[in-house]
Amino acid sequence: MNREQRNQILQRIRKLEKEFPVLEPDVACNCGGPDPIYRCEQCFTPVFMCKQCTLDWHRLTPLHRIETFKDGRLHSGNLKALGLRVQLGHPLPEACPLRISDDNFVIIDAQGAHEVMLDYCGEAAFRQWRILQHLKMLKLRDAMLDRIHANNVVSFGPACVEPGKDMPDIEA
């Protein structure tokens, strides 16, 4: 069986499940949480989970498609609709305190287009801002030093003065 045939069979099974769901959600999730109405299309599990368990389960697989059991049928959806955020630049489960968000990001892979909410590490941007601030301060300092040298008020040189250079050449 090739990949195309396998995908056609899976699509038929999914279509039948949506029209005639075999499993209905339980009253409570395995965690004890309410409303276990979500299950994953890619995880191949008949288990329904609550929203929080679904999000926790898919932190490392944010491109999986989620089915929601409503009105006696399964409806296709995605993890973005459940509020899953993908954090780049930090290990899980750590979130960047200076995050930069993009809630309209689309990733395209072999399964199709996936809408995701991305959080970029803002610390790198903050570091770049600080470096730019330091460079501006250095440029200002250099401009001040140039002005001081032009007016011969102060000279920044070695600790030992040199006659004729740092002070007038006076013969004893």
From TrEMBL:
Pfam families: CxC2
Residue ranges occupied by any CxC2-like cysteine cluster KDZ transposase-associated domain in the UniProt entry: 79-126
Domain of life, source organism: Eukaryota
InterPro entries the UniProt entry points to: CxC2_KDZ-assoc
Entry protein name: CxC2-like cysteine cluster KDZ transposase-associated domain-containing protein
